[in-house]
């Protein structure tokens, strides 16, 4: 069975992005084992000189390493990804490279009509940086707009078109994970490049 880690990109207790990932965990239970990972207790990134990452970050990195792929659910605050998600990604690229070449699917839920599109675009750019270098699925984005009204009391998505779209994108992602597993020729080289990359000696 496909093993996926779903990063809840927020520290808000009441999050429709978390709801969406919980829905995906249940809805796709016969297609993948999805484990939700919280980043809300990770300390704010402070670039320690010894490059020691917090225990919680190491644990998350190990989970990502062991998974076939990663889903990142991002809210949008002021046209950006939440600070807590940026901070977690900074830790996850500080002397460790768990996301390198990892297949990533981005989801986003927002209260308005644009469904976190600007945050998603920004997240794609961030994930392309030298020490993250994830393989983000191209093309398809899952945007859930009007997310406060999107779920029923059981936490299921209400809108059938949204479900159909999520199903199709998730099927593509499962295929993308398989294809990405075959794209390994440059893996060792990219890893070395990331290891040797040093912002202080460019
Ligand atoms: C300070 C602040 C800024 C926000 N900025 C945006 C924004 O730029 N775009 C947007 O769609 N929603 C914005 N929102 C509304 C929701 O927080 C946002 O839609 C979020 O993605 C909802 O996700 P959540 O339910 O997981 O918290 C903002 C809210 C606050 C409090």
TrEMBL record:
Family annotation (SUPFAM superfamilies): Flavoproteins
Family annotation (Gene3D superfamilies): 3.40.50.360
Boundaries of every NADPH-dependent FMN reductase-like domain copy: 3-147
Pfam family, one: FMN_red
PANTHER family linked: CHROMATE REDUCTASE, NAD(P)H-DEPENDENT FMN REDUCTASE LOT6
The name this protein goes by in its record: NADPH-dependent FMN reductase
